[in-house]
Design brief:
Layout (H helix, E strand, L loop, with lengths): L15 E4 L5 H11 L8 H9 L3 E6 L5 E10 L6 E9 L8 H15 L3 E7 L3 H9 L3 E6 L10 E6 L12
Parallel strand pairs: 4-5
Antiparallel strand pairs: 1-2, 2-3, 3-4, 5-7, 6-7
Helix pairs in contact: 1-2
Keywords: Acyltransferase, Transferase
GO molecular function, one term: protein-N-terminal-alanine acetyltransferase activity
EC number: 2.3.1.267
Length: about 170
């Protein structure tokens, strides 16, 4: 797969999205440990397993091809009854707030829309910024999973976005 997007608006310098490469999975696991220290961060082998299953994973890369963030989506079924699940979206803390996570999410949703798939995800109930981003992209809270994240015991919202390539997206580029 070639580049998904040449530039990510709002970033300093050039950031592009492309298929996540196996060589970057150790960096994914490193970012997991940084971003999710109170819970059970994914290991490199968990990412290997996701790629082996054929799930759709993207990386956000700077001009030196350094991985700044990543995102993954699982697709099951076939249109018009396909479903998608966002497995992960993460951005290096040094690069958060620059539109990288938003660009990764939009690319995942574009893939889900190609499949005409309803899209689900779980997000910590206390992650207000992520919940707002997901709402902006057509997601609604459809349930709560008590003590979903371990070992912290944090609750998660289950959110769903209807199957549609015409879901209104808020915000700018």
């Amino acid at each position: 797969m070639s580049e998904i997007s040449d530039f990510v608006p709002g970033t300093d310098g050039t950031v592009h999205l492309a298929k996540l490469l196996r060589r970057d999975l150790a960096r994914c696991a490193e970012l997991e440990r940084i971003l999710f220290p109170g819970d059970d961060p994914w290991s490199e082998s968990a990412f290997v397993s996701e790629l082996k299953r054929g799930h759709f994973y993207l990386g956000a890369y700077d001009e030196q091809e350094r991985l700044l963030g990543y995102a993954g989506l699982a697709l099951v079924g076939h249109p018009p009854r396909a479903e998608a699940e966002v497995h992960t979206i993460a951005v290096d803390p040094e690069y958060q707030g620059r539109g990288i996570g938003r660009a990764l999410l939009r690319s995942l949703l574009n893939k889900a829309d190609e499949w005409q798939a309803r899209t689900f995800l779980e997000v910590r109930t206390d992650n207000d910024a992520a919940v707002a981003l997901y709402r902006e992209h057509g997601f609604e809270v459809v349930g709560v999973r008590k003590r979903y994240y371990q070992p912290s015991g944090a609750d998660a919202h289950t959110m769903m976005r209807p199957a549609s390539s015409t879901v209104e997206e808020g915000g700018g580029t």
